[in-house]
Amino acid sequence: MKLKNFTLYFTCFLLQYLISTSFTFSQKGLTLKEAMDIAESNSPSLKRTRLSLIRSQENLNAQNAALKSNFALTLNPIEYTQSREFNDLISKWNTRRSTESFSTFTVSQPILFSDARLSLVNRFGYKDSYSEYTNTTTKGFSNNLSINLDQPLFTYNRTKLQLKQLQLALESAQLNYALQLLSLERQVAQAYYAVYQQQQSLEIAKQAYENMKESYEISKNKVEAGLSAQEELFQAELNLATTRSDWENRQVLFENAKDDFKVLIGMSLYDDFIVLPDISVDTIPIDIAFAIDHGLKNRMELRQREISIENSQFELIQTKALNEFKGSLGLSVGLFGDNEKFENVYSNPTDNESVSFSLSIPLWDWGEKKSRIKATEASIESAKISMEEEENNIILEIRKICRNLTNLQNQIEIARKSVVNAQLTYELNLEKYKNGDLTAMDLNIVQNQLSERKLSYTNALISYKLELLNLKIQTLYDFEKKQPVSPVISIEK
Questions:
Q1: Sign of CA pseudo-dihedral 252, 254, 258, 261
Q2: b/e per residue, 231-263, with b = 16+ CB within 10 A?
Q3: Of 64, 133, 76, nearest in space to 100 by CA
């Protein structure tokens, strides 16, 4: 029985050891760049934007393919009809039977510069037809070969306009994807540093707990030696319990922050990690004039505004074509032949030619076209105003960030000195506490001040790093690396 209990105890101990060991080894350090790489691959919002980019690219590819020669073959293997119809010419009813088989081969070529279409059409067939009126049956092969040209006149080039619209749609999708990347980088950085804040808070709370355990042991020894009153031990026990509770709360907040971060970047909830940020801060000189100039030249939002204006101008062209005066020219040159024998189809050919010219002349539309043109022109002016407003917002935002960076540098230096002073103050008061010149309650206040100063220093460093990232996004220039930023646009199918 003892052996069985020992075996069960040893098995449980071994299982617990393996679980804790595997958990320890599964935890890995995660840098901000690694987190961003994971988010780029797994972020749901970025996946949707990438699919939109793919759709725009494929639409443009399809339009470019449509500008090439199109080959088509239509086959009608058999077509049989029998009908009785009244013939007005002879004022009699006539029965007609027909069996036909034919095919049509077409080569169609759009002409981009003139919006015309040139086509080559060849129709070959066999026909067996009987008419009751003539009591005759006609059988034979026929072939009709023709070249056709359809040219719109006095109107805008619809093919060119559609191609340009698709090109702008692709560029807009690329810009949107790049902006999503920058936005995701900001979200990931904010969440990453939020995890780091909780991680540091946990470490500071743990250190405070260790310090409080030390002071508790000092108080306990002094009370047992009769050097301090029993109330000092009660206060030390309360301080120890409070710091332990704070440490445990920080553990909960840290784990919650990690789970939220995993969801954001698309990381498995069962993977564990610790963040390894580089929050070292060097004084980085910022030339405000250069930052504003670079932002105005490279911000993708401005290009999006320009695309909006261009699309509005295209809409104006289409609006002006409403009820427009336009024409159409059609040319056709062909050769037709028929014979009972296949090899003699073109023994006696016939030329087929046709020319057509048509005009569409609007007479009165009750002012519809004029009003629609004014409405479109108002949209264009509105888009121009929005672009000017966007430029002003960019300038204001960059100015604010530059001012904040200068202010944050001062705050970092103040917070660093505060930590040094708080640490020295705690050490001095700890000696006083050991000598009986300070109460446990007073020492707890000093300990809390030290923890707050450390957290304030960490928060100041993080705020500075996030503001630098914000400046990079606003100007598309990395002032830390001293190089322009070009978001990578990749399409994964």
A1: positive
A2: ebbebbeebbeebbebbeebeeebeebbeebbe
A3: 76
For residue range 96-134, list pLDDT tens digits in order. 888 899 999 999 999 998 999 999 999 999 998 888 777
In a domain, 65, yes or no: no
pTM comes to 0.73
Rounded to whole angstroms, the Cα distance separating 140 from 342 reads 8
What is the domain range of residue 91? Answer: 72-111+116-155+327-361
For residue 482, report the phi and psi dihedrals to the nearest 5 degrees. 55, 55
Q: Write a three-state SS string for 94-117.
A: EEEEEEEEEEEEEEEEEECCCCEE
Tokens of 71: 């080959």
Alpha-carbon distance of 175 to 177, in angstroms, equals 5
Banded pLDDT at 482 (limits 50, 70, 90): confident
% the chain with pLDDT above 70: 92
Closest CA to 179 of 270, 64, 50: 50
User: Are both 292 and 388 inside the same structural domain?
Assistant: yes
